[in-house]
Amino acid sequence: MEDRRTLLLDSASLYFRAFFGLPDSMRDKDGHQVNAVRGLLDFLARFITDYSPTHVACCWDDAWRPAWRVELVPSYKAHRVVRADPAGGWVEEVPAELVGQVPWIRATLDALGLPIVGAADHEADDVIATLATRSTWPVDVVTGDRDLFQLVDDAAGVRVLYVGRGVAKHERIDDAWLQAKYGITGAGYVDFAVLRGDPSDGLPGVKGIGEKTASSLIGRYGDLDGIVANAAKLSPGVQRSLAAAMDYLGPAREVVGAVRTLDLPDVDLTLPSVPKDLDLFAALADELQLGGSADRIVAAMAAAGQRAGRST
């Protein structure tokens, strides 16, 4: 049996990066932008080629700002909200040129046979966390979101391929990398992020506790529970900071922590060697003028199938 490895993609993180990083001159036959579609396919082809997964999932934000997270921490992603959605939830600030490409992205992935996996009122982070947690073989998570560092687990074979500096310069995040960078492992990342805060997600953190102090506290006491239990041993300033933030710590911990127990549909994540619907994919490639991007993803899938010993 072939060595199995799963590639879990934070889809929105990647297609946003493609949209803002690639020329808007990439157009379909009607003149609409397709840079997000082409870029995502190129990213997929690169990671499939470089990391030889046998299984792939394109994880989706069915809710980019889940109501239950907002109830816990109202500032969560509040700075990205354009307006409230009359149907419930919130409308995110996204360029119209990108919004128009999302249905094409989904159609293209479906024609290829690359499964899109989401869950009601949950983010892609939660889907990724659930799939990674229940995997019995190694997992690579592709994302530009540092919150998913919490999934890193050398013993379980889970690492993050972090594209924060770009896909070409992506970093392989394991426990050793986290230890060198922050002085913690993946297991301590949630509490570290809660203490430090994350302006990009609207999480204020604990006033007066920065990255170095958060790392030191977790290194010394293990987690938030240990820190609070030993508060009397801390400096007066840190004690005051923690006391002022007690109502924030518990809810923020739940917001930052990705859900690992979603009841996801039973989806076959086996990476196909050929597009599921070759005619449909060819038609989309022609209509959207995907060019070399279409060729590269098909070639990457075929090569992966050959490496795994599956017929193309």
UniProtKB/TrEMBL annotation:
* Primary role: 5'-3' exonuclease acting preferentially on double-stranded DNA.
Pfam families the UniProt entry points to: 5_3_exonuc, 5_3_exonuc_N
- CDD domains with a match to the protein in the record: H3TH_53EXO, PIN_53EXO
Gene Ontology biological process terms in this record: DNA replication, Okazaki fragment processing
Record's keyword terms, sorted? DNA-binding, Exonuclease, Hydrolase, Nuclease
Q: Which GO terms describe its molecular function?
A: 5'-3' exonuclease activity; 5'-flap endonuclease activity; DNA binding
UniProt protein name: 5'-3' exonuclease
Residues covered by the 5'-3' exonuclease domain: 4-272
Leader sequence range is none
Q: Which species is this record about?
A: Propioniciclava sinopodophylli
SUPFAM superfamilies per the record?
Answer: 5' to 3' exonuclease, C-terminal subdomain (SSF47807), PIN domain-like (SSF88723)
Q: Which InterPro entries match?
A: 5-3_exonucl_a-hlix_arch_N, 5-3_exonuclease, 5-3_exonuclease_C_sf, DNA_polI_H3TH, FEN, HhH2, PIN-like_dom_sf
